[in-house]
UniProtKB/TrEMBL annotation:
The keyword Zinc applies. Binds 1 zinc ion per subunit. Keywords: Cytoplasm, GTP-binding, Hydrolase, Metal-binding, Nucleotide-binding, Ribosome biogenesis, RNA-binding, rRNA-binding, Zinc. PROSITE patterns: ENGC_GTPASE, G_CP. Belongs to the TRAFAC class YlqF/YawG GTPase family. RsgA subfamily. This is Small ribosomal subunit biogenesis GTPase RsgA. Residues 118-263 form the EngC GTPase domain. Its cofactor is Zn(2+). The lineage of its organism: Bacteria, Bacillati, Actinomycetota, Actinomycetes, Streptosporangiales. Residues 104-265 form the CP-type G domain. It comes from the Bacteria. One of several proteins that assist in the late maturation steps of the functional core of the 30S ribosomal subunit. Helps release RbfA from mature subunits. May play a role in the assembly of ribosomal proteins into the subunit. Circularly permuted GTPase that catalyzes slow GTP hydrolysis, GTPase activity is stimulated by the 30S ribosomal subunit. Residues 1-16 have a biased composition (Low complexity). It comes from Actinoallomurus liliacearum.
Amino acid sequence: MSHSSSSGHDSSSGHDLAGYGWDDERERSFTAYRAKGLVPGRVIGVDRGRCDVVTEHGAVRAGTSLVRSADPVELPCTGDWAALRPGRDPELAALLPRRGVIVRSAVSRSSHGQALAANVDVAAVVVSAAVDVKPGRVERLLALAWEGGALPVVVLTKIDESADLAWTVAEVRRSAPGVEVVPTSAVTGEGIDALQAVLTGTVVLLGPSGAGKSTLGNALLGAAVLETGAVRAQDNKGRHTTVRRQMVRLPNGAVLIDTPGLRGVGLLDAEEGLRRTFADVEELARECRFGDCGHESEPGCAVLAAIAEGALDRRRLDGYRRLQRENAWAASRADARLRKERADRWKAITKSMRTTTRDRRR
């Protein structure tokens, strides 16, 4: 476990599912499950093939063998709502439909995705002000957030360690137009109240190791619940002190999902997320003379005109193209895998039919 409490949440409030986001719509959709003797619960942590689930009767440790899937994205993850079979050996009987899910491409570079958090309302993209901002990383995380149905907020941490805070804030805002940017310091407390005001519903913290996600979480909690670690002085990188995704309740009524540091943030089927992340480029592109303008050297290109006038940073266009290429490559790999899986299934069916026919003839 990567926190000081035994279960990662306030167990005294386990009976109040509304405090974890349960609402009337979910209750109505759960009628058929209740008729089968199942109870609702929210997954607050997953590890070693089992998960911690908070229910209206308290927190339990449940098995997941009944909800296995060949697609890793469909496996239980922190934030999922589930129908639970209660008893001495609780089991998840089914996962309820998700209202969005934050997905990245698998770290293994396979064609599968990896679900980071489900049913998220706000994605807090955590960026350390103590080091140089990496705009490409900010844009990647914003694309993940938008694609997953979450409202992104950029949280600048460690502003007390920033060498040039005004420049850092401006650089982040150039990478996140239209997204709220909240500078904070867990040391001085600056910005924490302002951040509390925008974090509502289910919130997930996204960012690399060393960005200060767990420290930020503790500042929001008002207590040292999440384990934190030091950052290496030579490269300002942290080690993974959070080793799994975990959910805790915040004093303002929201619930927070802390995640391990993301070393790699590959995109997977994130076209809508990219369009929203680069809405400034998309808006300019609609003004181009040609509908299929490639923004290279075409006459009447509004994007190139904006770059020439200084209204758009050339890096934004280059970053958009790079992420589009990556997303298209990931999509092609997924398509190839699905085609192979379909072919393998047909081969198995054909083989079975031939065997059955042969047996009948004997």
